[in-house]
Structure formats: structure tokens, C-alpha cells
Amino acid sequence: MTVAARGRPGPSIADVAQLAGVSAQTVSRVSTGAENVRPETRERVLAAMDELGYSPNHAARALRYGSFGTIGLIAHRLARTGESRTIEAVVESARAEGYTVSLVDVRTPGSADVTDAVARLSHQSIDGLIIIRAETATPVALALPPRMPVAVSDSRFVGHHPAVGADQVTGTHLAVQHLLDLGHRTVHHVAGPDDSAPAQMRAAAWREHLVGSGRPVPEVLVGDWTARSGYEIGRRLAADASATAVYCANDEMAAGVVRALYEAGRRVPDDLSVVGFDDIPLAEFLWPPLTTVQQDFHQIGDRLLDLLMRQIRGRETLTDTRIVVPTRLVVRASTAPPPA
Amino acid sequence: MTVAARGRPGPSIADVAQLAGVSAQTVSRVSTGAENVRPETRERVLAAMDELGYSPNHAARALRYGSFGTIGLIAHRLARTGESRTIEAVVESARAEGYTVSLVDVRTPGSADVTDAVARLSHQSIDGLIIIRAETATPVALALPPRMPVAVSDSRFVGHHPAVGADQVTGTHLAVQHLLDLGHRTVHHVAGPDDSAPAQMRAAAWREHLVGSGRPVPEVLVGDWTARSGYEIGRRLAADASATAVYCANDEMAAGVVRALYEAGRRVPDDLSVVGFDDIPLAEFLWPPLTTVQQDFHQIGDRLLDLLMRQIRGRETLTDTRIVVPTRLVVRASTAPPPA
DNA sequence: GCCGGCGATGTTGACGTCAACATCGGAAGC
DNA sequence: GCTTCCGATGTTGACGTCAACATCGCCGGC
């Protein structure tokens, strides 16, 4: 954590002032765009800035203003579909608000790592913090610096921190009901890992829906979000003659399941129907095009930033705010009635 | 770009000092971990910090030290495969070095936007800058603050800025030669957009390889990296009876091509062979598993950070350093000899 | 010709931290 | 008992910027 001492010390406002033959304050006025500077003086200052390659020292401004124009963002595996798209949305919205985003990733799902990341970031200069992750191991009460605005992408934080989450439950109900409507007797479930809160929510909603509909509840098949885990589960499913419909907790696992089924000679959707979750850009272009539950990551990101900005700007306290972003079922070609 | 005035003015070192009944300097000593503080005094200070919820003001430290422990990262569409994986690697390596990453995205490929992003970031305090993008419209000589260390993920910058790039040329040769070896008379090419430098490099290498092998060069089919564009191109390809092999500039377009071919009743690889580029995690689990050129985004990210840190740490000047990260062909099931 | 007033510019101090130097008090050595 | 030394703690100033206040010079009005 040792950081190179004394980064390039660049020219300061005083250097510009000297070169332009004015006081530092006049330079400051020019660089903040104040009105009351004679055009001729302004020109001279601008020329001096240009010559020296001056740009204002943000540390000094931040110190002066008590604000950094930066928000921190903690994510677990940031190359993953949901994460990267949410981050993209946050970054875009933040830019519109004049803020920059500081990114920290967290290696393991453990809570120690999160605490560490929070410490790292609050050590950095941030005006607020967004946490994009949802591991069940994450402590619900985070050890945050006092008065630090926070927004979290996990509805488990309700009552602790303002949260934004997709509507896992409705999405799951739509998916399962779609399969039941097609005539399937029951629906198998390929779940995400045990330590993922959204995975747990999807699995619980699936179970509840089956129970509520009086259907048998097959054993849950647990994957780890990767296509590979879906593939391995798919091989087991292919051997299970009773399975006719599978609801997968994400699209990657669904793709793995489909490939395993093909390899085993079982056709999708003729022999088995498969539904995914997320609606990744490729979902439509898999073969067959995947029926899936669409989540709007972009909106999640926007809402997160909005919640955060309201706290930063307005000093609002939003502790138990919870925003649920709707999900919807996109029916494509991977689902059909069960074989006769 | 106006930023909320005066963020939460938390307790300062002086408040802690007063509560603990010591001087500010002693508090500073405790918080920087200096040795020479009586254990009893240290305890009292720590207790006071705890009570007030003190954490050191990073802006003040940055001002003092002249370093933010932050590097800037500019990317175009950061949710895209290559971008997000490279970013992930950069963030991870940066953390290992004790640095945080500040993210700015660029909406359009135009150079004005890049200049703007650079300005935004150097306005922030960063110790170095990584630019992950490769649009041909990006000016080769960037208007950077003087003395700002930079690393760029585009080999076009050679001679201007230290650059890291995947070996597009070798990757392309491997892919095309693989198809020729299988017995295809020639290879069609689905290219990325005109404004992408890697797309141009792949297309040029493809053309060169065909010419060098004395094969006819079919018209280039230009997509925009999305699966949808691949799908539309695929429909045209399906109608072209002469096409037996297609080299696509990325995996998403390859997936779109494959789907279009299936819809048109043409089998992959029996009727047409398809090769992609990138080796996205899903490539192996498409149907059929996609033969593709693997690029190591993680390594690209690592190298970028390494180049940057060498400049930040050692004051090295690396202007014409160029690192080429190898690519390799991963043969799966989407390629086969042409139909008899 | 003097004065009020106003716009342009300069001066001072404060933001929070920490390094360098100053001071203070006690223990060891003679 | 007095000096010396050393470790613990305090004081000062500087990092770069900008708001608040001070000053300066000029113009117009009488």
C-alpha cells in the first residue's frame, strides 16, 4: 500500500501567476471562470497556463471544497455480465453528474475482503460509495465511515442501506409459470452458488411457485454461474428422463445446459425446454434463441447512482429505501410444450 | 461539472487531538503508524478516533504527498468483453500495487470525447493514465498533461505512447491457415467496424494471408461487433453457395452468423466452417463449440499496468515500448473440411 | 478639483495533514 | 547532585487552491 512519493510536482498556480505577472488569485479567478477579470489579463494568464502546461491540482481543490467529485464502486467479479453492465451505467450517469468513479474489486466473497475494500476506498477520497455485490457472506451492517453516503445493489440491505435490486421474485414466477402454462408437469432449477443472495432468491421463488401450484419440487442443481457448471449439470439432466423443463438462474449456465443436452442427443426445445435469466446480448443468438428473464442492469446502475446523489446532494437519509427494478420474460425459441 | 459543495466535513485530526488531550502531530503519528508513541498515549488516541469516527482526509494527504495512489482509466464501451476483462485485470493489478483505478468512459469514438475524458481525469488527481480503446479516430498524439505517465492498449500508438496489444496478425494467420488446411478454397471475413483499429488489422492480415496463399479474396462483410450484425451478415452468407468458411473478427458476430446459418438450414461445420476471435467464456458452450482465436485480456491488463507503474515509479521514459501479447488458435467443433 | 463608487487586482488565511525542528522531562552516568 | 542524552510530545510551516476582505486606480458627478 506504499505509494510512490511525490508524483510529478507540475507547475502550481504560483508559477503561472509569476509568469503572467499577476497574483495567484487572478490565476485562480481565470481557472474557475470568474467574470471580473479584464480580457487582456485573462489572455495573459491563459497563455502562461498553456506555456507551463498548468492544470489545477485536484487534491488542493478537494481539500478546499471538501468534495472530491468521485464516488467509490466496489464490485466482486467485475467482468461478469451483470456487474460490467451495471458499472457501465453507473459510470455514465456519474459522468453526467460531473463525478468520476473509483473502482475497487473484491477477490473473495468473504466479508473481510469487503471491509478491506471499504477501508481502502474511504482512505481514498470519495463522496459516496456504491457496492455491487450480493454474496450472502457480506455483512448486512457494513463498517462504513460515518456519514458516508452508500447505495447497494442488494435488497437484503433493506433497513440498513439504500438498495436497488431487480425483481427476482416476479421474474422467477414468470419463468416458471410460462413453463407450466406450456404443459410441463414441473420445472427443474439450475441455481447459482449458495453464497449468492440473488441465486438464493431465485431458488426460493422457484420452490415457492411450484409448491403454490401443487407441483412436485425436484432437487435443486447448484452451479456457479459459469457455462461450464451448466454443462456439467446438463449432462446429469440429460440422463434424467423425467426432466422436461429447466429454469436456469442465468443465461451462461443455460447455454451450458443446452450444449450438454445436444451432446446427449436431446433436443431443445422439443425434448426439454430451457429458460435463462439476465438476457445477455448473446441470448438471442444462441441456438435455439434463449427464452429468458430480462433484467435491466442499466436501470439498476442509474438508480444506484440516483440514490447516492440524493444523499450526497441533499443530505437525505434514505436508510430503508428500496428500489425494485422490474424484470420481464422474453419468450424465444428454447421453450415449447413437453414431448407428447 | 459542478460538484456539491462541502462534503460531509467529518472530524479532523484536530478534533481527535483535542479529545485525546494530545497535539495534532501525535494523532498524525498514530495514524501513520510511527513508532515513537507511548502505548498508553496511542491507546488514548485510538479511543478518541474511534469515538469520533475519524478517518484521515485523503485530499489533505494527497496534497501533502503529491500523489493520489490513483490511476485513471479511459475506455469506450466498458461492458464489452475485451474491455471489461482488461479493466478487471488492471484493477486487480493496481490493487496489488496499492493503487485505485478511476474510470471514465467515452461515449463516442471521436477524438473530441477522448480529449474531454483526458481533461476530466487530469482534472482529477491521477498518477498515471491507461487508455483502453482503439478507434482509428483517436488521435495518435494525445493532448496529455506534461509528465503524465501513460499506457495505451493499441499498438498504433507505437512511437508516441507505450502500448500493449494482442498479436492480431499471428492470430489471424493461424485462423485462416487452419481453414485452408482443412481444404477450404478461400475464407470469407466478417470484419469489425471501420473505425476500429483491431478490426482493420484483422481484416488486413486476413487479406494478406489469402493473397500470399494465392487464394481469391472475397468481399469483406462489415459488422459492428454485435451478434445482431453477425446474424444479418450470416443471412447473406447463407445465400452465397460459394462460401464454405468464415473468419469472424469476434465471437459475438460468429455466434450471430451461426444462428443465421442454422435458420437458413445450413449446418455448421458440415456446410460451413466458422471461426471467431477472442475466446469469450461462452465460446466453448455455443453450439457447436466455437473454434476461435484466444486473446489473453488479463495479460494485456497486467502489462498495461506494469508499463504504467514503471513510469510512475522509476521515472522511466518508455515512449516507444510496444508489448505484443500472443494469441493462439483454439480448435473446437465449428470447423471442418468443406462439403465434398 | 474633490469625492464617492465601482471594477480589477492583491493579500491573508484556512482547508487537513505531516515532516522537520524545537522542547521537555526523566533516567543514566559520573 | 549535576550533566548528558534520548525518547516522547509539541510547534511551525508548507503542500495548492480559493473565498473573503483589502486596496488601488479610474471615472463621473457636483
Automatic annotation (TrEMBL), chains A, B:
One of its GO terms (molecular function) is transcription cis-regulatory region binding. InterPro entries: HTH_LacI, LacI/GalR-like_sensor, Lambda_DNA-bd_dom_sf, Peripla_BP_I. PROSITE patterns: HTH_LACI_2. SMART domains: HTH_LACI. It holds the Pfam family Peripla_BP_3. Residues 11-65 form the HTH lacI-type domain. The keyword Transcription regulation applies. Transmembrane segments: none annotated. Keywords: DNA-binding, Transcription, Transcription regulation. PANTHER family: LACI-RELATED TRANSCRIPTIONAL REPRESSOR, LACTOSE OPERON REPRESSOR. This is LacI family transcriptional regulator.
